[in-house]
Amino acid sequence: MTEEQATALVDGVGAPGRPAWDARLETGVPTIDLQHRILFELMQRIPHGDERGLSPDLSDLLLQLRSYADYHFRYEEDWIRLNASTPRMAEGHQHLHAAFAQRLDQLEADLVGGRLKSAALHDFLRRWLIDHIVRQDLPMIGALRQRSPSHFP
Ligand SMILES: [Fe+2]
To answer: Is the pTM of this model over 0.85?
Structure first.
């Protein structure tokens, strides 16, 4: 995938009024692809409007999103450990996941403090997920597939 294509996906997929998903986001590992779709659907439930503050619904949604993201990250990190030739690959990826969880903490605090609109939260989460899939997961899984094609469907 070219840099222009990657940027177009990050800008477009799931943005208000834009296509909801794109087959180019599929890694070819069915469980990881399903989990990415579920994360994406959860993110899409965050209101795209100007609401500030943390409503009970939004609070619930963020709790679900966080616990599902934790579950997915653990699954993906275990999958990498199982399939990568060096532990360093899983460690680097784990670091990116942990940085996302920290950022989510900050955003939640901003939302509670009325310093963030739900639309900005939605945009950050959507962009982070698509960017992470396009620029991290896809190249990593693609490289592992090339190295050991027999491990992949
Ligand atoms: Fe990942």
So the answer is: yes
* 122 CA → ligand 1 middle, Å: 19
Ligand 1 centroid to residue 3 C-alpha, Å = 19
Domain boundaries, the chain: 55-153
Q: What is the pLDDT of residues 33-65, one digit of tens each?
A: 999 999 999 999 998 877 777 787 888 899 999
Q: Give yes or no for a contact between 69 and 39, defined as CB atoms under 8 angstroms apart.
A: yes
